[in-house]
Design brief:
Elements: H1 22-54, H2 56-66, H3 69-96, H4 103-128
């Protein structure tokens, strides 16, 4: 008994051509930001904390690193990861409480999360530098 194969099924599924809805994009970014905060984030933070507390010379080395534009950019990107993860996490908690589960509200809260994460990052960047 050979299984009938539907003749119109796709042979190659290009995931880059599929347009995801905004709530799905926010959810995917929440997962990615959480993973990036966990793996490179925690070890780098602990390494920086060790340099901060080890000695006066290591503290000066660390402050010297913070003056480099590339490091400032990476810190700002990491700050966006953190702020987006927090905002999206609050959104997910509200969704778990059945607040904002309707499609228009979910889309609006997704836009709000993206805007809030970006604005908080810009504000923190202006305050820090």
């Amino acid at each position: 008994m050979a299984a009938k194969i539907h003749p119109k099924r796709p042979k190659h599924l290009n995931l880059f051509k599929i347009k995801q809805p905004l709530p799905a994009v926010v959810s995917i970014l929440h997962r990615i930001s959480g993973a990036l905060l966990f793996f490179p984030g925690i070890p780098l933070m602990l390494c920086g904390l060790q340099l901060l507390l080890q000695s006066q010379e290591s503290f000066e080395v660390l402050t010297g690193y913070w003056q480099l534009p590339v490091i400032k950019g990476l810190l700002l990107l990491s700050l966006w990861f953190l702020l987006h993860h927090v905002c999206a996490g609050i959104r997910h908690l509200l969704l778990d409480l059945h607040i904002g589960v309707a499609l228009p509200q979910a889309r609006a809260s997704s836009k709000l999360v993206l805007i809030a994460g970006f604005l908080l990052t810009v504000l923190a960047g202006v305050l820090l530098w």
